[in-house]
What we know:
Elements: E1 17-21, E2 27-32, H1 33-42, E3 46-51, E4 58-62, H2 64-81, E5 87-92, H3 98-113, E6 117-123, H4 132-146, E7 150-159, E8 162-169
Amino acid sequence: MATNRDLRINGMIRVREVRLIDDEGNQKGIVPTLDAVRMAQERGMDLVEIAPQANPPVCRILDYGKFKFEQEKKNRETKKKQKLVKMKEIRMQPKIEEHDLQFKTKHVREFLEEGNKVKVTIRFRGRELAHTELGKEVLDQVLELLEDSYVLDRPALMEGRFMSMIVSPKVKK
């Protein structure tokens, strides 16, 4: 169904004939637009174009104010149910000590438990760039420490001076 902005009502409908659905949901067939508007006004309702792309356009007799309110209510409900996933980033270096690695991995686990995606990045400086395999080993250690509490979205990739991977939380059933 179209959004509220593209819905035309009553006099805004400029076609000669419309396929009409009355207020009880019964098909009335193809009716001249003026007759359809008159029928809607007799019932104290509005003629709303719900499928303008059809040939002829489909219009329905309904209370437009109530219809608009219901649509907004549905939109609010769907917004409530949405969960915003944030991308968090943890940065490390290839020469990270064991305790620091465990500490940062603990933060990665906390971010995953909150439902966020995490980008784990290794920054190479100077000559470290010649040994990118060390960075790969650090990222593999992070995955080992996380055990099975993640889904690997993107494996380790080099991006200039950085090697990064993206992990997201495992879907709970």
